[in-house]
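ASSEMBLY PREDICTION REQUEST
Request ID: AP-0331
Submitted by: J.K., bench scientist
Number of chains: four
Total residues: 690
Priority: normal
Notes: Please return the full assembly, not individual chains.
Input sequences:
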Amino acid sequence: MELNDRKKLILQAIIDEYIVSAEPVGSRAISKKNELGLSSATIRNEMADLEEMGYLIQPHTSAGRIPSDVGYRFYVNSLMHRYKIGVEAIEELQRELAGRITRLDRAILRAGYLAAAMTDYTTVITTPVGEKTEIKKIDLVPVAEDSVMLIIVTRTVKSRVIKTTLTGDECISVAQVLNAVLTNKTADEISYDVIQEIENICCGKLGIEPKVIINVLNFVYESISELDDGEIYVENAKSILKYPEYRDVDKAREIFSFLEDKNNLKKLIAQTDNDGVRATIGTENEPEILKDCSLVTVNYSLDGKAVGKLGVIGPKRMNYSQVFASLDLISNEIDKLIGYISNDE
Amino acid sequence: MELNDRKKLILQAIIDEYIVSAEPVGSRAISKKNELGLSSATIRNEMADLEEMGYLIQPHTSAGRIPSDVGYRFYVNSLMHRYKIGVEAIEELQRELAGRITRLDRAILRAGYLAAAMTDYTTVITTPVGEKTEIKKIDLVPVAEDSVMLIIVTRTVKSRVIKTTLTGDECISVAQVLNAVLTNKTADEISYDVIQEIENICCGKLGIEPKVIINVLNFVYESISELDDGEIYVENAKSILKYPEYRDVDKAREIFSFLEDKNNLKKLIAQTDNDGVRATIGTENEPEILKDCSLVTVNYSLDGKAVGKLGVIGPKRMNYSQVFASLDLISNEIDKLIGYISNDE
DNA sequence: TATTAGCACTCAACTCTTTTGAGTGCTAAT
DNA sequence: ATTAGCACTCAAAAGAGTTGAGTGCTAATA
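STATUS: Completed
Returned structure:
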């Protein structure tokens, strides 16, 4: 059987309708829209065909049809009309996103929030992770009798407190050595050998006790290794409760648990290695728990390099065209951000 | 009518029972426990009295009784038995909380998480906010052609990127002046006058263009003013869905919305200015939305000074004794943390 | 005088049955 | 090829009946 134009139009109409109503769509409803000028009986025949071809499902004999995963997939690939985001909405987004930003991870968080606000689905966003995090400066600041704060400036700032007997003057000397050796290197260029080289200098020329410096340098190495670890944020999880498919509290709770497990979530979103906006629909999602959901993701870049992911999780009958348009827009806007800012708390 | 010992025992038994069952408690259930050796008829008479006195409520004629807010209040103040947390659980907590901590806000986050894990209610925790944040060091690091990262080291590290035409050498000089004037001052000691004094030095001795330095110093002042702003984290919000009082998805959604509004939440938790663990029960809570919930809060301190809040939000029939004990324990453990660490990302 | 056994009464919640209506598939007419 | 017409299906809503936990009151009892 062939999927001719009329069938496509009917399928499109059914999915469009189902996306807003969340109720099985009957032949009469499609017929009454009158865009095709066909009677319900004709629609009925076509719907039976579409079901046979796997695009539609009938929950029970006397019900209307709902789209199958295959139906959604076809819709997303070929049927869905392009959603055009209004100029004012775009300007609003730009204002919200770029206005008074001084910290990159805050901006990213805000982007996630805005994606959630625009789509009203749950949003997931990762902070930038670049293989090329270049070290700009390292500092050791005594903060108490026996502890020193290690500060590593890259595109962002990371810090941690180290317990050590290093004196104030020693901190300054060690910091000088660290800067001399490490500045302008990327995190992956710094092997443990490099750190040992620093150890030798410190023990030799500076005459610092090996035990003391080894301890400190271990933390330095560890911190540098962790530089590229990203965070993941979930926004608007509550929207899940808004959709009738999650009226069942237990089902909703399962999803909440899933969203709370950040590691799992990172893994999920990392594996969608996409170019442009992509959707995985229902059973296309690996986690069992998402088999009734769709996930739409996009990479965002900074400086032209893909460094993070933005994703939307919602019911399979989500408003794909709007979500696609929103993610596309927001990822582009994030890319523009790097001009203004780059930072971290 | 007098609230004699027997009435107290009965009230206690009813509330204890209701806390676990979430179902109206009948006279027979209490009688059968047989701790008092009274028949259901006698219990019934006492229950009628307790209702008249305002401690109990009968949802409808043929139902058992549930505690009123007044009943809970009396229970919390006078009836509740002290919950004793096991030694292993305490050790477990200490291990989890103090192990490998290098960042203070992470530790706080973990404390919130652990409170949620111990109680299985939703937990709210604020990051430390001290009026006495002492500036340890300030740095200006060029990160791009036209931007400089401002780093302020206190007990934690804050940073932001500033667009400026300041050169690398100028950064060093300005940083020197900033350190000379601001080091060891607390945030509230630094008025705008102090900043202007720095401006004069920079323009005068260093000969930097006023326009350029004013821009930078504005950011410095702003950042210092923001030093004491705290964050608030919500953990285990999903647990709300676990309790029958929130079986109604719409009700749950309202609470989720409330928990998402961080500013409101900060305000709520800030106003409970308490010493030790405190509960506000049902209508004692100001926000309309919490009138069916209880909020239990405790201040935690670092260095002996109260700097943050930890709170638990749950149904009115929450396990108060366990929550009280957990919050008490955790707030004490947080106080001990300051020995090991102090940090920020 | 305090307690309790006994009994009629109440009412939410459950079960079972009936009704409703949206929707289908098939057939015969156009 | 399309459509009007009709019998059929079945989930969901509405209604009717049943159950049972729980009460309040009264009269008997310790």
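REVIEWER COMMENTS: The longest helix of chain B spans residues 320-337.
SIGN-OFF: pending second reviewer
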